[in-house]
Amino acid sequence: MLSKTHSISFYLYHSLQLAVTSRTNPFIKSISSLRVVWRKDRKLDQAIENDKRCKLCARVVKEVLNEPGQVIPLRYLQKRRERMRLNVKIMTFLTRNPGLFDIYYDRIKPKTVPVQFLRVSDRLKEFLEEEKRIFREQEPWTVSKLCKLLMMSKDKVLSADKLVHVKRYFGFPNDFLVDLVPKYPQYFRLVGCPGEEKSFLELVSWNSEFAKSVVERRAEEESGLTGIRVRPNFNVKLPPGFFLRKEMREWVRDWMELDYVSPYEDVSHLDQASREMEKRTVGVFHELLSLSLHKRVPVPILGKFCDEYRFSNAFSSVFTRHSGIFYMSLKGGIETAMLREAYKDDKLIDRDPLLEINDKFVELLEQGWKKREQQLRLQREEVKRDMEMMAMKSGENDRYSLDE
């Protein structure tokens, strides 16, 4: 069994002289027949759990912000609990997360009885203004991300609806197709109207500076620091307690020796079942996860782009077959592909600049949580004082009874 700090490449290096290449070994199996046992990684699962409460709050906020005037009757929001995947009543949620909304009374229709409404709080308004500022500051990075997604696709075109569906995973602003895309006609052309069928975002011009993957940039940086040419390749590290069978070790060793295939290269000439195509597929997933905010994306979301990025129907097996590069989390009943190198235990190392927005939202939530804790503590102290006063009065009454 490998130690926790040994990578696949380290292990394979020491077994290199004992094996022969797949070109001369008739027993090396095809990609489709190779199997790796999935192993749970509790620390990476915890990374998903850490964001659970914030994501729930963000869903509720989004629901209110999408309403006209950003207000909604509380009872209407209560009916949408299932859609928001909220397992408590709205009032319970508001009590646990103060500071997001203000409650006030108004009429849904003239001459009706006033009911409780929710509106955005002043503190949430401040956050929303801060969010706009961060998006403006990081606009060049957002544009480069969008270009990269288009440049990796086979026809340099992606469905507008699909891009809208994945916007929160990559940090695109809510109205990026309407507000951002028209500002950069040198890069983008929007065909059709967003929200309608057959609406597409098309790449207008190729930017060679954007056509460098994270893996390639890392190799360039290492070459610059050491003065020695570093070949682009993946950082591969086996999870704790994990080991590979001999046939898999041999296949991975030979696969790692293949030249890196950039996700921005034209691979129309490659056989879908070839090892080179596997290298390219891993490269695309590595780049997609690197471009995502949290370096993780649900597998069903990635599956929406099978045709555009030339993924096979069984693409998800890549994440378990290359367990030293990716982790497939099953947390929450959803398969989520995660990039191992981006995490140390349950914390992100490689943080996207747009995560500043998430940090600001967490600050807003934590202010409310601290306020609630203070209120609960004061209530407990008040109850304690009342009980002590009652005990003292009871003791005095007992003494009076004895004196009589």
TrEMBL record:
Pfam family membership, one: PORR
Superkingdom of origin organism: Eukaryota
GO molecular function: RNA binding
Domain PORR: 40-369
InterPro entries to which the protein is assigned, alphabetical: PORR_domain, PORR_fam
Protein name: Protein ROOT PRIMORDIUM DEFECTIVE 1
Originating organism: Morella rubra (Chinese bayberry)
